[in-house]
């Protein structure tokens, strides 16, 4: 089993990255340090790790505001901290934004990944026991019909600028393994839900709109299907791969939990109503069908047999429990919501770091 002294987590102020840092620092098998490199785009919120900063800041946890598009800055991070593991989450991650403005997706997701690979190649030249783990998405495999699943060897067929940029970064990572022998692993995961997700994605957007009595926009006919996984289960999968994953290998990660969007939104309506002691159908009347997303992938379904069989990973959090905890978290964290809704966290970033 591998162990690491200093893990560089990119994008650690975002949704999955912040959950992962909290998860990693809480592992009894991990006694090392975490360096969180994040440029704090609209999706990066230092509040997501306020508890970790308070408890471990300056000792086991350091935050570095840096942009992965800036190669010199990334080299500095590698030279200042004796990094022996990279967990690369940083990305532009929202499909809708990639349709309206793809440039940042190309620059961050492709060029940024390239910069990290180059820095790792340079600093790890003769180093043993190092690992570069790249976090990717099931969207690289394209869109399924009513049957079938994505396997690790399914042909890539990305259909949005977001998924094309992630596909490109996956290929770059694998090329560094084959060409330079850089020890790399890749994971392709399905849709995550849970605490600290920025409310432009389906689950938190729906919860927050319900609380404000706003329409619940469902794209197209609402019959597109996604496979949902609780974010902590994604974190445990990444941790397994860091410890035991075979270098050069890709692992699919998923919930084995497919939902039509409309059914999921109806379920969230019911769980929010239940949590607030209201009638089951209170929020369903807010559901509004809107114009479809261009190129909207119809169905995703992940086969995660490999990570289960080879690394002994399992989803631990059942969907009802995970969804109830998520709903509860958004109901109980008014200050976080208020800071995101009002842009208050941007003002904090500006005051403490200067805005970019
Ligand atoms: P997110 O948008 O919540 O967070 C992304 C983070 O990256 C933010 O903190 C942002 O500030 C940072 N970032 C963006 N551009 C940067 C740059 N140029 N330099 C440094 N930092 C930068 O995203 P997320 O949902 O947490 O996703 C994290 C990763 O997981 C992404 O690579 C995404 O493709 C992948 N993924 C996400 C899901 C999902 O359901 N959310 C599923 C599978 C894979
Ligand atoms: O599959 C993994 C991917 O999941 C990740 O790689 C992405 O980073 C992550 O954002 C997510 O992508 P999706 O496009 O699937 O997530 P989103 O929450 O934007 O949308 C989920 C589904 O809900 C999708 O079919 C579009 C639909 N949708 C979304 C929004 C925001 C709506 O119907 N209405 C909405 O308002």
Commentary on this structure:
The chain has 356 residues and is of the alpha/beta class. It has a domain at 6-197 and 230-255 and 296-317 and 345-353: NAD(P)-binding Rossmann-like Domain (Rossmann fold), CATH 3.40.50.720. Helix content is 44%, strand content 16%. It is built from 13 helices and 12 strands. Strands 3-2-1-4-5-6-10 form a 7-stranded parallel beta sheet, sandwiched between helices. The chain has a 3-stranded mixed beta sheet with strand order 7-9-11. Strand 2 (33-38), helix 2 (50-56) and strand 3 (61-65) form a beta-alpha-beta unit. The protein starts with 5 loop residues before the first strand and ends with a helix.
Task: Name some characteristics of this structure.
globular, 12 strands, single chain, 7-stranded parallel beta sheet, 356 residues, binds 2'deoxy-thymidine-5'-diphospho-alpha-D-glucose
Number of β-strand runs? 12
Bound molecules: nicotinamide-adenine-dinucleotide, 2'deoxy-thymidine-5'-diphospho-alpha-D-glucose
What percentage of the residues does DSSP assign to strands (E)? 15-25%
**Helical element count?**
13
């Amino acid at each position: 089993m591998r162990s690491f002294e200093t893990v560089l987590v990119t994008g650690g102020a975002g949704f999955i990255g912040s959950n992962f840092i909290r998860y990693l620092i809480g592992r009894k098998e991990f006694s090392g340090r975490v360096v969180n490199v994040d440029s704090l785009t609209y999706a990066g919120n230092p509040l997501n790790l306020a508890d970790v900063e308070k408890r471990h800041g300056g000792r086991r946890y350091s935050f570095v505001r840096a942009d992965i598009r800036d190669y010199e800055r990334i080299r500095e991070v590698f030279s200042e901290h004796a990094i022996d593991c990279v967990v690369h989450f940083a990305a532009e991650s929202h499909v809708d934004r990639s349709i309206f403005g793809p440039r940042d997706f190309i620059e961050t997701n492709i060029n940024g990944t390239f910069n990290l690979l180059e820095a790792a190649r340079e600093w790890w030249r003769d180093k043993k026991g190092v690992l570069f783990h790249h976090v990717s998405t099931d969207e690289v495999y394209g869109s399924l019909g009513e049957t079938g699943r994505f396997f690790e060897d399914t042909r890539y067929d990305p259909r949005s600028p977001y998924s094309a940029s992630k596909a490109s970064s996956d290929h770059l990572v694998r090329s560094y393994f084959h060409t330079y022998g850089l020890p790399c692993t890749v994971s392709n995961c399905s849709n995550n839900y849970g605490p600290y997700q920025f409310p432009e994605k389906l689950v938190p957007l729906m919860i927050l709109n319900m609380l404000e009595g706003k329409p619940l926009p469902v794209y197209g006919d609402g019959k597109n299907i996604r496979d949902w996984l609780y974010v902590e289960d994604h974190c445990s999968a990444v941790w397994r791969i860091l410890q035991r994953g075979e270098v050069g290998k890709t692992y699919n990660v998923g919930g084995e939990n497919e939902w039509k969007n409309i059914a999921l939104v109806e379920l969230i309506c019911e769980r929010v109503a239940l949590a607030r002691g209201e009638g089951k159908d209170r929020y369903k009347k807010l559901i509004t069908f809107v114009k479809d997303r261009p190129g909207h992938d119809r169905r995703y379904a992940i086969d995660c047999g490999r990570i289960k069989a080879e690394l002994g990973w399992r989803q631990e959090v059942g969907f009802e429990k995970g969804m109830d905890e998520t709903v509860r978290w958004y109901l109980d964290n008014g200050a976080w919501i208020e800071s995101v809704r009002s842009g208050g966290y941007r003002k904090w970033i500006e005051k403490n770091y200067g805005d970019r």
